[in-house]
Amino acid sequence: MPRLFAFGCSFTKYHWPTWADILGQQFDEYQNWGQRGAGNQFIHNSLVECHLKNRINKNDVVCIMWSYISRMDTYQERRWITPGNIYYQQEYAEPVKHLFDTRGFYLRDLALMYSAQQMLREIGCESYMFSIIDVLNCQEFEPKDGSPLIADILPAYQ
Question: To the nearest 10°, the Cα dihedral for 26, 28, 34, 36?
Answer without folding.
Answer: 70
